[in-house]
Amino acid sequence: MALRLFNSLHRRVEEFTPLFPDAESVGFYCCGPTVYDFGHIGNFRTFVFADLLRRYLEFRGFRVNHVMNITDVEDKIIRQVAATGQSLAEFTGQYTEAFLADLATLSCLKPHFLPKATDYIPQIIDLIQRLEQRGIAYRAGDGSVYFSINKYRACGCCYGQLVTLDPEAQRRTERVSGDSYDKDDLADFALWKARVPGDGVVFWDSPWGEGRPGWHIECSAMSMAILGPSFDLHLGGEDLAFPHHEDEIAQSEGTGLQQPGRPFVKHWVHAAHLLVDGKKMSKSLGNFFTVRDLLGQGFQGREIRFLLISAHYRETFNFTRDGLEATRSALARLDATVAQLTERAGSEVPETSTPPSALEMSFTEALDDDLNVSKAWAVIFDWVRETNAALASGSLSPSAAAARLQSWLRVDGVMGLGGRPVAEVPAAAIALLEKRNAAKAARDFGMADTVRNELKALGWTVEDSKTGSKLKRL
Ligand SMILES: [Zn+2]
Predict the structure, then answer these.
(1) How much distance in Å is there from the Cα of 342 to the middle of ligand 1?
(2) How far apart, in whole angstroms, are the C-alpha atoms of residue 116 and residue 279?
(3) Ligand 1 centroid – CA 245 distance (Å)
(4) Interval between CA 339 and ligand 1 midpoint (Å)
(5) How far does residue 219's CA lie from ligand 1's centre (Å)?
(6) Do residues 63 and 24 touch, judged by C-beta distance below 8 A?
(7) CA dist., res. 291 & res. 276, Å (int)
(8) Separation of 222 CA from ligand 1 center, angstroms?
(9) For 20, 128, 330, 372, which has the most beta carbons within 10 A of its beta carbon?
(10) From ligand 1's centre to the CA of 215, what distance in Å?
């Protein structure tokens, strides 16, 4: 069977096949962050999903060329640069670094390319000039350059490939910036924005005078510069489908750079929204979390990752604290099984080219089905149960244990939970355990209980046995 994915372009699940079967790698672009603040978990749902799809494509034998852009010029950024007095590069640099650190915390593989919009100004200008030469872009009285949807349609192109457009709704939902517009049609969007006093020092020279690029053209320029005018996969949050992605298609295909019959992108894949406690995340509701907020509350990156990939990417996901806490026991079960397998395998090394195991085959079947993670988790936890039973019965030989372990590591290469066979115990917890042992020896049971509670607050519990006491993760 082959991998099937929902393609937003055709509104149906389709088999994933590369656009160029002989190409060395699959071109994979995901719209990245706008770096004016720390990323929140709603943003990271999309990025963790993109990481899962990339890892699964690699598991299925594809080489992936993963590109994620960094939007480092935009209205909010310009306002903050003016307010803080920092340079554009300083201001966006700190949030870009923070974003990459958060991505690593969530065990996301680093994209192969992380282009910044401000490094692609010549390519952006080149695309706008091409659109101008073809009569699709025009300069308005305010000095800005706009994309004409009517002219684009007149060339025989379709605007409205990802969404069925209702012209009235289109006007209502259009992303309107604070800039004053002087365009021919309300639906037209800016490719180049003429410099206004509020832009401060953030501007570039162009054939149309000083100004800066529109947001949509940045992604067309960066994706095509790195992956070529036609590529395989474009991902993003569902809120980007319109107008951002629709405009990307229009700008990119409007240049006529694609070979006849080739689209800009073959498969468009969108991840659904994330709610927190059933509501849209907002700072005023107090349900707004960055990855850093959750780490500060004692959660781990792998727990957040696990929760974010516990639901299907096309389902709206309800993120709750209870849900996040529940990941602990599930991960602890998995870790305990992996730890026992490691112990049983000992120094046994599995053969390097073992055929896919039953676990891998069922896992593949689940994820081939439009990344059906619920099915994949069911397969994984059935395997945990069955492995525990085999371990308990003593029927698992060291070489069989080593083979199972290898099979799990292949599966975890996709899920990215980073099997932790032996939990690292923090020094603070070890110190508390020693304090409790001393209290017990002195028969100060009140103190021993107090210390036990302190350990609990750190996420650890004590297990006493004849051979002594040991720490266990809660
Ligand atoms: Zn984009």
Answers:
(1) 43
(2) 32
(3) 7
(4) 42
(5) 5
(6) yes
(7) 14
(8) 9
(9) 128
(10) 8
Q: Could you tell me the two tokens for 25?
A: 């790698």
How far apart are the CA of 264 and the centre of ligand 1, in A?
A: 14
Say how many Å lie between the CA of residue 378 and the centre of ligand 1.
Answer: 34
**Gap between the Cα atoms of 376 and 3, Å rounded:** 14
**DSSP state, residue 242:** I
Cβ atoms 134, 256 nearer than 8 A: yes
Q: Quick one: DSSP state of residue 240?
A: G
Centre of ligand 1 from the C-alpha of residue 206, in Å: 22
How far is ligand 1, taken at its centre, from the CA of residue 112, in Å? 17
pLDDT for 190-246, tens place per residue? 999 999 999 999 999 999 999 999 999 999 999 999 999 999 999 999 999 999 999
List pLDDT tens digits, range 341-369.
999 998 887 766 678 899 999 999 999 99
| Residue 380 CB contacts under 8 Å (≥ 6 apart), including other chains | 334, 359, 363, 411, 415
Question: What token pair was written down for 154?
Answer: 């007149």
Distance 103 CA to ligand 1 centre (A): 18
Give the pLDDT score at 168. Answer: 55
Report the DSSP beta bridge partners of residue 204.
211
Say which residues have a Cβ less than 8 Å from residue 386's Cβ, sequence separation at least 6. Answer: none
- The count of other CB atoms within 10 Å of the CB of residue 289 is 21
For residue 358, give the H/E element and its range.
helix 358-368
3-state helix, strand, coil in the chain (%, to 5): 50, 15, 35
What is the gyration radius of the CA atoms in the chain, in angstroms?
26
User: In whole angstroms, what is the distance from residue 400 CA to residue 418 CA?
Assistant: 21
Angstrom distance (rounded) from CA 447 to CA 453: 10
User: 301 C-alpha to center of ligand 1: Å?
Assistant: 26
Backbone angles phi, psi at 125, to 5 degrees: -60, -40
How far, in Å, from the CA of 73 to the mean position of ligand 1?
13
What is the separation of C-alpha 304 from the centre of its chain, rounded to a whole number of angstroms? 12
Using alpha carbons only, what angle is made at residue 294 by residues 289 and 297, rounded to the nearest 5 degrees? Answer: 130
The pTM score is 0.86
Q: Where are the beta strands (DSSP E) in 60-205?
A: 64-68, 137-139, 145-147, 189-194
Q: At residue 238, what is the residue type?
A: E
CA of 217 to the centre of ligand 1 (A): 8
C-alpha 230 to ligand 1 mean position (Å)? 15
CA distance linking residue 188 with residue 216, whole number of Å: 12
Contact predicate 146/182, CB 8 Å? no
- Compute, in angstroms, the gap from residue 190 CA to the centroid of ligand 1: 15
Question: What is the DSSP pairing of strand 64-68 with strand 279-280?
Answer: unpaired
Q: Which residue has the tokens 């006093």?
A: 197
CB atoms within 10 A of CB 175: 11
